Amino acid sequence: MGGYDLKKVDAINQLSRDFTQQKINFNQFNQAVIDLDQTVTQTPFWLQVLGAGLVSMAPMLVFKATWTDLSLSFFVGLLAFIFSKKLQTTMISRIFLK
To answer: Which residues cross the membrane (predicted)?
Structure first.
């Protein structure tokens, strides 16, 4: 899945501040950016699932939903996210096993 890694954005911003304040030189800045680009960060699965549930509740707030509606949308969001992840894994496995 694509997206922005806000931890990397924050790290790049800090590096650029350090560079403009001459705390690090260009070579250090360049190497730090290369190192940062090669690091892979992964949000824990449980946090992704929780986030999916919370995001699913947001549209219901517009319609002034009841607590029951909010809880249902939360669990539907959880299940949809888990199903989506499982489907992605299955499809990727099929593609590479052929």
So the answer is: 65-84
**CA angle at 80 for the pair 85 and 98, rounded to the nearest 5°:** 35
Statement to judge: residues 23 and 59 lie in one domain: no
For residues 85 and 49, is the Cβ–Cβ distance under 8 A? no
Cα–Cα distance, 41 to 7 (Å, whole number)? 9
Domain that holds residue 50: 45-97
Q: Are residues 25 and 52 in the same domain?
A: no
Indicate if the pLDDT at residue 66 is higher than 70.
Answer: yes
Same domain, 81 and 56: yes
Tens-place pLDDT, residues 26-45: 999 999 999 998 887 788 89
Asked if residue 49 and residue 31 are part of one domain, the reply reads no
Whole-number pLDDT of residue 54:
95
Is the pLDDT reported for residue 20 higher than 50?
A: yes
